[in-house]
Amino acid sequence: MTETNPFIALAAYLLAIVTAALLLRAVPKITRHLEHSGESRYASIDGLRGYLAFGVFVHHSVITWIFLRTGVIEFPPSNFYSQLGQGSVALFFMITGFLFWNRLLTQGRQHDWLAFAVSRVFRLYPLYLPLMLIVFVTVFYLQDWELKDPGIRLAGQILAWLTFDRPDVNQYHQTGMLISNVTWTLGYEVFFYLALPLAGMVFIYRGSWLQVVLCLIGIYALYQLVGWEHSLKKHFLASFLGGIGAAYWIRRPHLMAWGQTRQAGIIALLALAIAFTAFNRAFNLLPLLLLSLFFVIVASGNTLFGALKPRSIRWLGEISYSTYLLHGFVLWVMVQRLPLVMDLDARDTWTYLSLLAVCTCLLIVISSLTFLYIEKPGMSAGRKLLQWLRQGKKAEKSLTEKVAR
């Protein structure tokens, strides 16, 4: 059966890697970008991102296949295909926890919170806003441009989508399924970003007991606020702890050195294999511990016998946010809408697999383009805004000093 055959995933990964390799040869701009980003201290994590984002795509492609044949949206019966989605998201949360907690440990009170806030906004929204526009336009196109909800309610829907919630738009049932509901994870990321300074004051800056209590109350208030519509689940948030633990792990030279050994690489792959085959859910204690063990070894710089090093994999890592955010809509167009136009039966196994192959190549190409022409300029705009804000602060400080004299 397609939904349990792991070779389908293997073939999809190979096709994605080949597509990325061909793009590297055909587009010099990609090569130049990789040469610059190759200076990254955590190259192994950059490579891991590519596998994870594409894994979520494969996970949703299997869910879509099941839906087309049964009319039911449910997790794949295979542990492996179920974990390609859940386990990948858990590891993404660990990457976030690791990178930002590690930066906080390194910089301490010198951490630039303004730069952090600006960079997060300009990392998430430049690509998300066009996707959100596409979703709204698609809904109205499917409904023949008929406004079914009053304007005030539509405005509320727009606001909710801007904060990564996914209410039905204009009464279109399960609007979020147009993008495989992927934006639910962004709510958790935003909560982590907002809670980070408060958590830093509790665990790193070490203030008074009153400050600690107030910060803990603040974290709880954020937890309730961000999860206003749909409560944030604690077992999902626990994934971030694996990354935070890795930030402490790499500060122990003997642990870091062991994490780069061949033995550690074997243990990491075994932990990943057990987590992906023995469990149907990633966000329980045992699979999270196994995934955390896998992650701390990768965070140590282990490339898993070179699997995280190839340029094609690193490119998949660079475009991972585009791949993650866009794959649901690309999948919906290719396997649900296109067959209607071309009079194809997507429930036929070979028809579906053929469409999936085209979808894989198209996704990598589109994600590469959106990274180069939307994400990258967006991050650059964020840096320019930060520079402008700092210049304004300097000018204000200079003016204040002159007045004081």
Automatic annotation (TrEMBL):
Keyword terms of this UniProt record: Acyltransferase, Membrane, Transferase, Transmembrane, Transmembrane helix
Molecular function GO terms recorded: acyltransferase activity
UniProt protein name: Peptidoglycan/LPS O-acetylase OafA/YrhL, contains acyltransferase and SGNH-hydrolase domains
Biological classification of the source: Bacteria, Pseudomonadati, Pseudomonadota, Gammaproteobacteria, Pseudomonadales
Superkingdom in the source lineage: Bacteria
TM regions (residue ranges): 6-27, 48-68, 80-101, 122-142, 177-196, 203-223, 235-251, 263-279, 285-307, 319-338, 350-374
Residue intervals of the Acyltransferase domain: 43-366
Organism: Pseudomonas mandelii
InterPro entries the UniProt entry points to: Acyl_transf_3_dom, Acyltransferase_3
